[in-house]
């Protein structure tokens, strides 16, 4: 199986043309080479053992901080909590003003305005989930309205969920058209398409969903909502990274990847960076092309950053509670 | 049929599990005549870090348990130790050369010491707390709370009694402990860890590292997630260095004057060393505006 050793998993056929019907999409997606799960997991585990130390570790920590989409997606998100989170993004570590800022703050659509107001023109983007997040179980009209709400409030990025029910029922055309419609509603905002891989059951499905999202115009393919377990895993992220790499080989166009959920420690984050470098390539090691959907990992990254600089281990009493 | 002796490998005790050192290192523990007794794990800086994170997790549950429950658990340690006294008597006689009678007395005192501190847990607030008289319409209360994660350097000399005497007061106050066993007493320390593991002490509340205290002490003293140090087992030079190192992260440091006599009645200094006093002011509420009221 070609994917086991990281060689390009080129699609069996050429890309289906824009506006292809459901049958053509199905032929293409089901004709994608199957994922070898044993080989994939072995490679992911093998790369995860790579040791990154000293200066490289410091550089990796700074890059990982710059890649964080600092996220709060809870029913209890009060405006005050959003303001706190934004301030954390603006000043991740008051004791070390040279700490890079995270890439974006990710909130629900009705909280975009307050986030936008707090962040101003700091360069930290506002991402908003939309399209009946997290289940995606609503009509297309509602999903579009949800997206428009976020964009009108000033969201720079939109995180949509795919209709997993339709995908698992084989209705690729429907899923495709919904992504296209939301992409249109999102306008200039970059569109992240959440596949919710924890619900897709197989790596083959993950690969198909990733290609489907890329075909429909996704700027990012994103693993999970963070509401379903398992959320992001290394092997699943490998599949997404393979997809964007192959997409670039086929079309010359670069697309981004975002694992989300379950990334809590610096060690986890660095493992993802190694995977990005080895599977997709060094040109993806940039906050524009790779993000972490996470919240608690930021504190751990800050603590590790301090530990590297101070030469001793750090404690949770020295970072903000959020 | 002859029985082939199966020598035991003594591992670390971290987060309720018995892992080998992350470094893979071991060192030989010898008996009093210098003969090989067992291999003990030689803990590294990363093992110390893992022990601190395990203790931080363990602290949440242990400090949140009721004082009464903590007393029961410490009493349970005494029960389990009593049941395994023969093993400890043998370990003490082998490693220190003490007479069986002396060793038995040491084990018995250790059991009694645990019972003593088990009794303390639900009396701390009454003895060290207070209702403070204040000249304003407030109730003012002071109550002791656990300090947090305490790194304990166990003393040499009395392998079991010394260890129990430094560990039990830390636990009684509701703290979690990272114990660095005295280098020659690794076997006794890990045997005690086995007692702890089978006596309702949840994982992470006590973590035992064996190896060189001189190697581990600077890392624990500088670790920002360690809240207090008990330097009983360190020599003067190392203890002074730890005190200096701990200043950066403002730790509580307990360093006894002279060589403590663990056989004597323990007193309360060790208990008090790892308690924080929290004072709460609360309005009395009913302030009378009628004549005769003092306010």
Automatic annotation (TrEMBL), chain A:
GO MF: deoxyribose-phosphate aldolase activity
Keyword annotations of the record: Lyase, Schiff base
InterPro entries: Aldolase_TIM (IPR013785), DeoC (IPR011343), DeoC/FbaB/LacD_aldolase (IPR002915)
Similarity annotation: Belongs to the DeoC/FbaB aldolase family. DeoC type 2 subfamily.
GO cellular component, one term: cytoplasm
Pathway: Carbohydrate degradation; 2-deoxy-D-ribose 1-phosphate degradation; D-glyceraldehyde 3-phosphate and acetaldehyde from 2-deoxy-alpha-D-ribose 1-phosphate: step 2/2
Reaction catalyzed: 2-deoxy-D-ribose 5-phosphate = D-glyceraldehyde 3-phosphate + acetaldehyde
EC number(s) from the headed UniProt entry: 4.1.2.4
Protein name: Deoxyribose-phosphate aldolase
Enzyme superclass (EC): lyase
Keyword field contains Lyase: yes
BP-aspect Gene Ontology terms: carbohydrate catabolic process; deoxyribonucleotide catabolic process
UniProtKB/TrEMBL annotation, chain B:
Domain Aldehyde dehydrogenase: 27-254
Keywords, comma-separated and alphabetical: Oxidoreductase
Keyword Iron-sulfur found: no
Pfam family name, one: Aldedh
Gene Ontology MF: a single term: aldehyde dehydrogenase (NAD+) activity
Domain of life per record: Bacteria
EC numbers: 1.2.1.3
InterPro entries from the UniProt entry: Ald_DH/histidinol_DH, Ald_DH_N, Aldehyde_DH_dom
PANTHER family in UniProt: ALDEHYDE DEHYDROGENASE-RELATED
Name the record gives this protein: Aldehyde dehydrogenase (NAD+)
Annotated organism of origin: Microlunatus kandeliicorticis
Taxonomic path: Bacteria, Bacillati, Actinomycetota, Actinomycetes, Propionibacteriales
């Amino acid at each position: 199986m070609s994917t086991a050793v990281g060689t390009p998993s080129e699609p069996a056929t050429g890309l289906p043309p824009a506006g292809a019907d459901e049958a053509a999409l199905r032929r293409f997606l089901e004709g994608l080479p199957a994922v070898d799960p044993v080989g994939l997991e072995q490679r992911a585990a093998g790369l995860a053992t790579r040791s990154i130390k000293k200066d490289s570790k410091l550089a990796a920590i700074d890059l990982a901080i710059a890649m964080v989409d600092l996220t709060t997606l809870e029913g209890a998100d009060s405006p005050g909590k959003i303001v706190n989170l934004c301030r954390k993004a603006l000043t991740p570590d008051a004791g070390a003003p040279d700490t890079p800022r995270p890439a974006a703050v990710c909130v629900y659509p009705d909280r975009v305005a307050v986030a936008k107001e707090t962040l101003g023109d700091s360069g930290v983007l506002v991402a908003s989930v939309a399209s009946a997040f997290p289940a995606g179980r609503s009509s297309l009209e509602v999903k579009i309205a949800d997206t428009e709400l976020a964009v009108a409030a000033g969201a720079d990025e939109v995180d949509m969920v795919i209709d997993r029910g339709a995908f698992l029922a084989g209705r690729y055309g429907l899923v495709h058209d919904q992504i296209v419609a939301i992409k249109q509603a999102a306008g200039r905002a970059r569109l992240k398409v959440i596949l919710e891989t924890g619900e897709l059951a197989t790596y083959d499905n993950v690969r198909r969903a990733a290609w489907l999202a890329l075909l429909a115009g996704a700027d990012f393919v994103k693993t999970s909502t963070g509401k379903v377990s398992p959320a992001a895993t290394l092997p699943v992220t490998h599949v997404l990274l393979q997809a964007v790499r192959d997409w670039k080989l086929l079309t010359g166009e670069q697309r981004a990847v975002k694992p989300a959920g379950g990334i809590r420690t610096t060690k986890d984050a660095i493992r993802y960076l190694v995977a990005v470098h080895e599977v997709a390539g060094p040109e993806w090691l940039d906050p524009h092309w790779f993000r972490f959907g996470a919240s608690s990992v930021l504190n751990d990254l800050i603590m590790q950053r301090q530990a590297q600089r101070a030469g001793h281990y750090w404690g949770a009493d020295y970072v903000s509670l959020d | 049929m002859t029985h082939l002796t199966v020598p035991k490998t003594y591992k670390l005790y971290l987060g309720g599990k018995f892992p080998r050192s992350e470094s893979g290192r071991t060192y030989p523990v010898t008996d009093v005549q210098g003969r090989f007794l067992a291999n003990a794990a030689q803990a590294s800086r990363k093992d110390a870090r893992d022990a601190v994170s395990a203790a931080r997790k363990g602290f949440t549950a242990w400090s949140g348990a009721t004082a009464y429950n903590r007393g029961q658990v410490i009493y349970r340690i005494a029960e389990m130790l009593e049941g395994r006294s023969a093993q400890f008597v043998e370990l003490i006689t082998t490693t220190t050369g003490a007479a069986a009678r002396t060793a038995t007395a040491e084990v018995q005192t250790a059991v009694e010491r645990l019972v003593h501190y088990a009794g303390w847990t639900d009396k701390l607030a009454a003895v060290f707390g207070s209702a403070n008289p204040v000249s304003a319409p407030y109730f003012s209360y002071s109550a002791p709370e656990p300090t947090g994660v305490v790194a304990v350097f166990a003393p040499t000399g009395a392998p079991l009694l010394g260890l129990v005497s430094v560990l039990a007061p830390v636990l009684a106050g509701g703290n979690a402990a990272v114990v660095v066993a005295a280098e020659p007493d690794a076997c006794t320390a890990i045997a005690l860890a086995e007692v702890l593991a089978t006596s309702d002490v949840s994982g992470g509340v006590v973590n035992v590292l064996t190896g060189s205290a001189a190697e581990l002490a600077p890392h624990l003293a500088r670790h920002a997630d360690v809240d207090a140090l008990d330097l009983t087992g360190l020599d003067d030079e190392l203890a002074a260095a730890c005190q200096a190192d701990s200043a950066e992260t403002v730790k509580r440091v307990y360093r006894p004057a002279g060589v403590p006599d663990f056989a004597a009645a323990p007193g309360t200094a060790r208990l008090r060393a790892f308690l924080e006093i929290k004072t709460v002011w609360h309005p009395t509420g009913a302030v009378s505006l009628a004549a005769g009221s003092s306010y």
